[in-house]
Amino acid sequence: MDQNGHKTRISDLDRFAALGIKAIRYPVLWELTAPDGVDKADWSWADERLPALRDLGVAPIVGLVHHGSGPRHTSLVDPEFAPQLAEYAGAVAQRFPWVEYYTPVNEPCTTARFAGLYGVWYPHGKSDLVFLQALINQCKGVVLSMRAIRAVNPNAKLVQTDDLGKTYSTPELSDWADFYNERRWLAWDLLCGRVDEDHTLWSYILKSGIPAEDVLWFRDNPCPPDIVGLNYYITSERWLDHRGDRYPARYVGEHGFADIETARALATPTPGIGPLMEEVWERYGLPMAVTEAHIDANREDQLRWLHEVWNAAHDVQKKGGDVRAVTVWSLLGSYDWNCLVTECRGYYENGAYDLRSPQPRPTALARLMQELSTGRAPSNPVLQGLGWWRRPGRFLCPPVATSATVAALPAERHTAQRPVQPILISGATGTLGSAFARICEERNLAFRVLTRQEMDIADPASVEAAIERYKPWAIVNAGGYVRVQDAEQDSAGCMRANAHGPVVLAIACARHQVHLLTFSSDLVFDGSKGGPYVESDPVAPLNVYGQSKAEAERRVLAVNPEVLMVRTSAFFGPWDKHNFVTLALQALAAGRPFAAADDLVVSPTYVPDLVQTCLDLLIDRESGIWHLSNGAAVSWAELARRVCALAGVDSAGLNSQPSAALDFAAAQPRFSALASERGNLMPTLDDALQRYLQAVAEVREEGDTHVGAAQAAHYGGV
Question: Family, per the entry (predicted)?
Fold first, then answer.
């Protein structure tokens, strides 16, 4: 909560309620509220938040321990963990006797695996004994906590969450798969009092060193969930293969077999969460809810994942299963789950809100939640595509298709595809247009790249014909006049392409309700500010090119305020051969001199990052002016030095010069670096340069490009 800012931002509760949700999993964490005992508890935060949620009509499902061990004085293998947690739970109930739903311990089986079996979380155990001790302690904590809570509120209900994982395998590893598939039920089985001498894992539990009486205690003290909470991720379904050499080494464990996500290995995808929910219903016959459904992916795949889970829950409900809810986890996104929060890398994956803006910014996921919660049909056209977990390019190994086990999987359901609305991309031959085409294809976003002959953006009739023919949901204006120096002698051509054309597009898009993304430049500024420019700074272009972009901004947003207008700067990327970074690196690596201005400060922009971010904003239906770059304010000469340092190339041949010595025809702002008051959405420059070097190496290996030898004669525009 410190990292995502929610701890001090009570206004988030209004945002959450606006999504149309009826309940929310909400923390009143033991280690934060009462780290030194219940008698010293600080209830101020919960006192403010829980009643506020109630007043907004949102029922809190109170969580007490979430992937942790509680306060420092205890742990998951401490015999006092359960009674101490119960004492705290009782105090919470006394404080908030009206709260109906509780999850005293989140995912006890999953937590026990990572803390007691894999050694990832505290107490870093790596044995079946520590795993089972942690599991039993957590489950006992749940039973005793609900007993204490119900002593205050007899109507209190237990929502018991855990990962709904299932394992598939080659026939040679069927015993392992069977064991894992039984183990996934253990927390719920214990709480339901189902573990005794007849349980499939009874011998395993006793051989691991757990006394029989510790297990049978649950048979005598059952506490079945009122709602079985099912958490489902792309990692929830696993494939085991005895042929470890077929897979990347990171997926092969100490036993020598591969353990990998099914989506990355199986030729026929699993049907997803639906059949797993049916297994839960058949096993327990208890009400169910999907209590976590999230994927760390591009925006369209986040939408597709949620929509798939939502539809599966409805299908199970229609078949007679008691499904109560689908939970979007988490609303504010999360930090560092790509390393299981074992390091502070600052890696952020957003959810219904994006926290990289001054205030949480609703994404397309928030709009989808509102539509689902009110019974409206989902409207985002990107839902028409398949998620990456169902696309051909998902494999990390030769796809498995011949195993008898795989053949026994339920067949993938095929549904008739409606005509797909594309994104139209103007500028077929340009750096930006080709990058959009490449990345749209990678992201399974339907698109059409149009030449000027197919859609002349400055010709209203041509634009109208293209919209009528292709019926796009969005247009990306990736073309335009980019020769900054030549524009001084070709003002009419520059203005036609950069100002008049975007206005024609904006008018047509307003009429047809098509979303438009178009680009502006840092050259709309004169550099007199002396610091990075933000979106609201006044424009004052020094040259014809900058004037054309400023004119486009003014006129486009006047006729169509819904347009997404992106200002950016100083492109570099791995796929074109004429950008400054590529030319500088090639010349200096070959021992040739290279001249660059040391008195013009810009914000370099990695084209793949720009395209990815623009597509997310387009899907989010953002509008107005956004500044997008990789953040750093550097001179052209410093940019060349920086990429050389990262590439291990000697930059002694770099000739740093004042811009006056480079004989530019167009006046250049001395400082045109971009910052943003709307959100810093792109990675750092050093991070981008590292990925650029990696991508260039991959392109060279594929033989897809040959970098020309000519040095840049001028600095191009956007």
Answer: Belongs to the dTDP-4-dehydrorhamnose reductase family.
Burial 671-700 (b: 16+ CB within 10 A, else e): bbbbbbebbbbbbebeebbeebbeebeeee
Supply the residues annotated as catalytic.
545
Global confidence as pTM: 0.92
Token digits for 445? 């976003």
Tell me how far apart the terminal alpha carbons of the chain are, to the nearest angstrom: 39
Position of tokens 């019974």?
375
Q: pLDDT tens digits for 334-393? A: 988 888 888 888 889 999 999 999 999 999 999 999 999 999 999 999 999 999 999 999
Token pair, residue 96, equals: 């908030």
Q: Find residue 260's DSSP bridge partners.
A: 239
DSSP bridge pairs for 23: 59
- pLDDT of the residue at 429: 82
Q: How many residues does the chain have?
A: 718
- CATH number for 423-704 (one of 3.30.420.150, 3.40.50.720, 1.10.3720.10, 3.30.70.1130): it is 3.40.50.720
- 252-258's contacts with Cβ under 8 Å and 24+ in sequence apart are 257/173, 257/176, 258/397
Please tell me the distance from the alpha carbon of residue 614 to that of residue 628, in angstroms, as a whole number.
9
Confirm if 564 and 705 have CB atoms less than 8 A apart.
no
Residue 154 DSSP label:
T
Q: In which band, very low, low, confident or very high, does the pLDDT at 407 lie, cut at 50, 70 and 90?
A: very low
Instruction: Tell the CATH topology of 6-389.
Output: TIM Barrel (3.20.20)
Counting Cβ atoms within 10 Å, is residue 57 exposed (0-12), middle (13-18) or buried (19+)?
exposed
Do residues 108 and 115 touch, judged by C-beta distance below 8 A?
no
Burial of 417 (0-12, 13-18, 19+ CB in 10 A): exposed
Q: Which amino acid type is present at position 410?
A: P
Q: Residue 460 burial by CB count (10 A; 0-12/13-18/19+): exposed, middle or buried?
A: middle
How deeply is 391 buried, as exposed, middle or buried, from its count of CB atoms within 10 A (0-12, 13-18, 19+)?
middle
- Residue 560 near residue 507 (C-beta atoms within 8 A): yes
CA distances from 125 to 112, 135, 205, 340, 506 (A): 9, 12, 16, 16, 60
Q: What stretch of H or E contains 466?
A: helix 460-470
**Can you give the residue ranges of every domain in the chain?**
6-389, 423-704
What's the CA gap between 451 and 466, in Å, rounded? 11
CB neighbour list of residue 342: distance below 8 Å, 6 or more residues apart: 120, 121, 336
Residue 630 one-letter amino acid: N
